Amino acid sequence: MKPPRKLHIKSYGCQMNVYDAQRMADTLTPEGFVETANVDDADLVILNTCHIREKASEKVYSELGRLRTIKEEAARNGRQVSIAVAGCVAQAEGQEIIRRAPAVDVVVGPQSYHHLPQLLVHAKRHGRALETEFPVEDKFGFLPPPQPQAIRARGISAFVTVQEGCDKFCSFCVVPYTRGAELSRPVARIVDDVRRLTDAGVREITLIGQNVNAYHGEGPDGRIWSLGKLLYHLAELPGIARLRYSTSHPRDVDQTLIEAHRDLPALMPFVHLPVQSGSDRILAAMNRKHSADDYRRVVDRFRAARQDIAFSSDFIVGFPGESREDFAATLALVTQIGYAAAYSFKYSPRPGTPAADLQETVSAAEMDERLVRLQGLIDSQQSAFNQAAIGRTVDVLFERAARNPGQMVGRTAYLQPAHVMASPDIVGRVLPVTIESLERYSLLGTLAPSAHARPSSPLHTGA
Ligand code: 5AD
Ligand code: SF4
Questions:
Q1: Ligand 2 centroid distance, CA of 287 (Å)
Q2: Together in a domain, 259 and 149
């Protein structure tokens, strides 16, 4: 029997890329590949790239420089290493990658991962990289085989893709171009994936999509189902302890989704709801199609439905035309909403997007200063949110053994890591933990006494 070939995947960017990396690994397992965490051991290295901001794209070329050295060193030792570039940079700059990085054997876009085995054979046979065409039709099933397929369970938490692509066309964003038009998967396919994962021991499902709450998939009744309706349905399936979804657009929050948060204990009260800016002028220039007040109203509706709900968001500072007043409006919005976490980025013009044609008006120094101020505010909110857990008893879904011997780690409803001393058999259970202290972003606590006395209760709502 041939020894297994080793596969190393380095993933950048969003949750969809994490999911895609797992999907690629699953596609290559039947081809005799096993995953390795060590890039120096690998026979095949896949860079799963992100094109969302300039910085993310640039990383690809510096990483490819490093990989080329590894490949040449291996060749001197008589070992062949292949390099593949996947993800959104592959999609957007395929030809450029082949031109700039001749060490690359395969360039493959997100719609073509199921062709990876054939692409590797092609590269080996012809000794040069082939850029796949990225047929959008593939998404509609004109070309075999249909995808995405369910990924193999890898622990107790898993992502399931429910929709891909985005039709929103925010003026700064490449996603509608790299990931294409919005397409929702049928409910039956999603249910199959979830069943397969829960049968393999998964307890937490995060439904993912670039614009997940725009979901409008075909239901088993032949009607179009919304994300809210899908969540009600999935919450009924056996084995599900927790449901999440990401990433949402404020314009697509409908009443059923709000009610799902009111009615479904399994639906976690933590919503990633990017706003990007607190200034109506900038939101309009971003083509967000909502105002800051629209956003406030959406947050209020969620809060009215579920008191303990918390939010995270994304922000861009230094968008063309952003004045001091506009930036102050962003700080004011953050202060008013109070986030449990948030990500903030300096604006970077992306080729092909409408905003790339706008005159940049915010100097690099000013952009840096705004980013530092915004991140300072967000950090203080996050710390306050984490501090507030101390002394409380909260539900934790346990995932695995921690680094320290005897310690187990899981996550709270708000994705905070929580550590306790406990036996490994708590993996996969939701147990109440009394939080005693905070170490950086991690909560430390002890299992609440009742946890020892009663059986697993996935729907326990805590104190
Ligand atoms: N410049 C800076 N940040 C961007 N994002 C998307 N495009 C850009 C860009 N051109 C940010 C947005 C988005 C997150 C995933 O990345 O905040 O929500
Ligand atoms: Fe990009 Fe806007 Fe779509 Fe989000 S909603 S993926 S920011 S275009």
A1: 10
A2: yes
**Nearest protein CA to atom 2 of ligand 2, as residue:** 170
Which region holds residue 141: left if phi is over 0, alpha if psi is between -120 and 50, else beta? Answer: left
255 plus 211 within the same structural domain: yes
The answer to whether the CB of 392 falls within 8 A of the CB of 461 is no
Number of independent structural domains in the chain: 4
Residues 432 and 330 occupy one common structural domain:
no
CA 165 to ligand 2 centroid distance, Å: 9
Kindly write down the DSSP assignment for every residue of 275-305, as one continuous string: -B-S-HHHHHHTT----HHHHHHHHHHHHHH
| Structure token digits, residue 297 | 């109203």
**Which of the four pLDDT bands, split at 50, 70 and 90, describes residue 150?**
low
Q: What is the pTM of this model?
A: 0.88
* Ligand 2 pocket, Cβ-based, cut-off 6 angstroms: 166, 168-170, 173, 175-176, 210-211, 249
Q: What is the CATH number of the domain that holds 422?
A: 2.40.50.140
Same domain, 304 and 214: no
Q: Could you tell me which of 198, 193, 172, 138 has the C-alpha nearest to residue 52?
A: 172
Q: Show which of 387, 407, 429 is a domain's final residue.
A: 387
Q: Which two tokens stand for residue 313?
A: 């968001």
- Residues in contact with ligand 1 (CB, 6 Å cut-off): 52-53, 172-173, 274, 276, 314, 316, 345, 347-348, 350
Q: What domain range includes position 438? A: 393-447
Tell me, yes or no, whether 264 and 290 share the same domain: no
Q: What angle do CA 190, 196, 202 make, to 5 degrees?
A: 100
Instruction: Summarize pLDDT for 290-332 with one digit per residue, the tens.
Output: 999 999 999 999 999 999 999 999 999 999 999 999 999 999 9
In the block, residue with structure tokens 């099933």: 141
Regarding whether 158 and 44 lie in a shared domain, the answer is no
Which H or E run includes 433? strand 430-439
One domain, residues 371 and 440 = no
Q: How far is the centre of ligand 2, averaged over its atoms, from the C-alpha of 170 (Å)?
A: 5
